[in-house]
Amino acid sequence: MVSASERILELKRKKNAVILAHNYTSPEVQDAADYVGDSLGLSMAASKTDADIIVFCGVSFMGETAKILCPDKTVLMPEPDAHCAMAAMCTGKELREFREAHPDYAIVGYVNSTAESKMEMDICCTSSNAIKVLRSLEGRRVLFVPDMNLGAYAASNTGMDIKLWRGFCSIHHFMTATRVKEFKDRYPEALVMAHPECRKEVLDLADHIGSTESMIAAARSSDRKEFIVLTEIGMKHRLEKENPDKIFHFMEHAVCTTMKMITLDSILDSLTNGTGEIILPDSVIAGAKGPVKRMIDLA
Ligand code: 13P
Ligand code: SF4
């Protein structure tokens, strides 16, 4: 019997499709992908591909960003209802109201946001370029949306005093310094790596702070044999695969359930029947393209 992976491979060739997957997706999804990476890497990969179809294995803001960057391509999301809860914490309407009340502010928006709210931003950023993006606005008044933890972390690295939206990712926000200290006591030799979506009290205990892809690179180049990884558990797959001699510890609650909705069967269905196509109105693509492109051009 032909396996799901073999059928995906054959359909990919036949339809000139590429599969992009986030570092948080399930191991079998990552193994079926042509490119696995962080939000910035995936946006770059989408903007460079010459495939006709992009199958995006991630949450909806990621597929929407690919569509904004490549409006002429077909972007399929195997699970279009896989959303990032943080993206819903800030709406386009709220940002329009803020802009009307504070016309002197530049709005910097984490890509973990809806396409509609991207239309109201001056520039987007990801966890890997938030500091660089803020520096490009030195001297301006800045509102950072929606993630208050990433915003606070990036601001503290630039010395800028910025206004923060009150959004957060529950997976990262609910990691506490007490729990991290327990892990450190249990694994005293471990290097602590944290995603900047974690709170300051957790980041203060970390040896390395950065995007998911920066953690993969840090683990690869480190001499340490043990790591405490303060981000989502999907990262375990690549970290263990690329570093079979090293050990990685995660917090049990760190599961992004929507990322885990994507399966080989849903990829196969999407490729076979074109299900989950991202359709955005031309006006939304036109309005959101500027902020996303400005970020890519800075990278
Ligand atoms: P990265 O851009 O670091 O992959 O992060 C995306 C994300 O959703 C973190 O929760
Ligand atoms: Fe969104 Fe958090 Fe999931 Fe990242 S881990 S996609 S921020 S809900």
Quickly describe the structure.
With 299 residues, the protein is α/β, with parallel strands linked by helices.
Please render the helix and strand layout as text.
Elements: H1 4-15, E1 17-22, H2 27-32, E2 35-37, H3 39-48, E3 53-57, H4 60-69, E4 74-76, H5 92-101, E5 105-110, H6 115-118, E6 123-125, H7 130-135, E7 141-145, H8 148-158, E8 163-164, H9 170-173, H10 177-186, E9 191-194, H11 200-203, E10 208-209, H12 212-221, E11 226-230, H13 235-242, E12 247-250, H14 264-273, H15 282-298
Parallel strand pairs: 1-2, 1-3, 3-4, 5-6, 5-7, 7-8, 9-10, 9-11, 11-12
Helix pairs in contact: 1-14, 3-4, 4-15, 12-13
Bound molecules: 1,3-dihydroxyacetonephosphate and iron/sulfur cluster.
Can you describe what's shown?
By secondary structure, this protein is of the alpha/beta class. The chain has 3 domains: 4-82 and 259-280, NadA-like (Rossmann fold, 3-Layer(aba) Sandwich), CATH 3.40.50.10800; 87-169, NadA-like (Rossmann fold); 175-250, Rossmann fold (3-Layer(aba) Sandwich). Helices cover 44% and strands 16% of the residues. The chain contains 15 helices and 12 strands. It has a 4-stranded parallel sheet, sandwiched between helices. The longest helix has 17 residues, at 282-298. It is globular and about 55 Å long. The structure holds 1,3-dihydroxyacetonephosphate and iron/sulfur cluster. Iron/sulfur cluster (SF4) is lined by residues 59, 84-86, 112, 169, 171, 197, 232, 256, 259.
